[in-house]
Amino acid sequence: MQKSLCQACGVCVNQCPVDALSLKDDEIFVNQDLCISCRECEALCPVNAIKICLNNE
Questions:
Q1: 3-state SS string over 2-50?
Q2: DSSP letter at 55?
Q3: Is 0.85 topped by the overall pTM?
Q4: One digit per residue, pLDDT tens: the chain, 57 residues?
């Protein structure tokens, strides 16, 4: 997550299919144990602040 670009709008938090994202004090947090790397948040972010890196990339 590129914190300098993130506007803490919550779009990614609201759309995460496994609730791996949370918003607290205008900052997005990722629970790596829940994240399934589906890239839904990356596709929905209106300011392109999210980039999912998979191990094989």
A1: CCCCCCCCCHHHHHCCCCCEEEECCEEEECCCCCCCCCHHHHHCCCCCC
A2: T
A3: no
A4: 677 899 999 999 999 999 999 999 999 999 999 999 999 999 999 999 998 887 655
List residues bridging with 21 in a β-sheet: 30
Instruction: Name the strand (E) or helix (H) holding 44.
Output: helix 40-44
Paired tokens of 52: 């999912």
Contact call for residues 10 and 23 (beta carbons, < 8 A): yes
Residue with tokens 């990339």: 57
